[in-house]
Amino acid sequence: MPRKARTALKSLRNIMSQSSVKRAPLVQAIEPEVRTDMNLPVTPGINVPDRGKRLKNGELLGVYIVEWGYDVPEDQWIAFHDWLSKNERQLAETCPGGIEYRGTYLAVFGPTHRADGRYSTFWGLTSLADIEDFGTKGKKEFQKLMREFHSFRDTQSGTGFSQLYQIAAGTPGY
């Protein structure tokens, strides 16, 4: 055994002898565990019959749907509801091309403290590029309304999420 290796081994034995538990190092095989959600490949429901017509007449909400889940502080509920009453139509009318406001909803049944928040807002999108452009496109009025909208969100509650959905019909199974 080379001198450096003997010195390292001697140092290791010295460290082990100083601890109260005397045991040899142990190596065991581990079983890996994957803890991620299942993801499906994103496809735009390309096999949906009459997709464009069904989107236009409102039968489908969008090729893609984005759901925002969040909370609003309880002392702001009435102000938020009033803001929505005054501004939802304008928010929908000023959306950038390819994005449609589909409404904001309040959970009425279930626990009062939800990890995903009590409110959900839905947006219809025609392409994945719309997700990337969401915060940067649109008229100044849309951007102003979005800043006001976000000002009601409770950033201290630790709630919230965002979920992307796609049309299920015509989507390949995996």
Q: What is the arithmetic mean of pLDDT?
A: 79
How far the N terminus sits from the C terminus, by CA atoms, comes to 56 Å
Q: What amount of the residues lies in strands?
A: 15-25%
Order of helices and strands: HHEHEEHHE
Q: Class of the domain at 51-166 in CATH? A: Alpha Beta
Going across the major beta sheet, what is the strand order?
2-3-1-4
Task: Give me the CATH architecture of the domain at 51-166, please.
Answer: 2-Layer Sandwich
Number of strands: 4
Per the principal axes of the C-alpha atoms, what is the gross shape? elongated
Task: Extract low-pLDDT stretches.
Answer: none
Largest sheet: 4 strands, antiparallel
CATH topology of the domain at 51-166: Alpha-Beta Plaits
Radius of gyration: 27 Å
Q: Helical proportion?
A: 25-40%
- Summed up, the helix count is 5
| Content-based structural category | alpha+beta
Descriptive account of the structure:
- The protein has five helices and four strands.
- The chain has helices at residues 3-18, 51-56, 77-93, 129-133, 140-151; strands at residues 64-70, 99-106, 119-125, 161-166.
- The chain is elongated.
- It is an alpha+beta fold and 174 residues long.
- A four-stranded antiparallel β-sheet has the order 2-3-1-4.
- The model has no long low-confidence stretch (mean pLDDT 79).
- The protein has a domain at 51-166: Alpha-Beta Plaits, CATH 3.30.70.
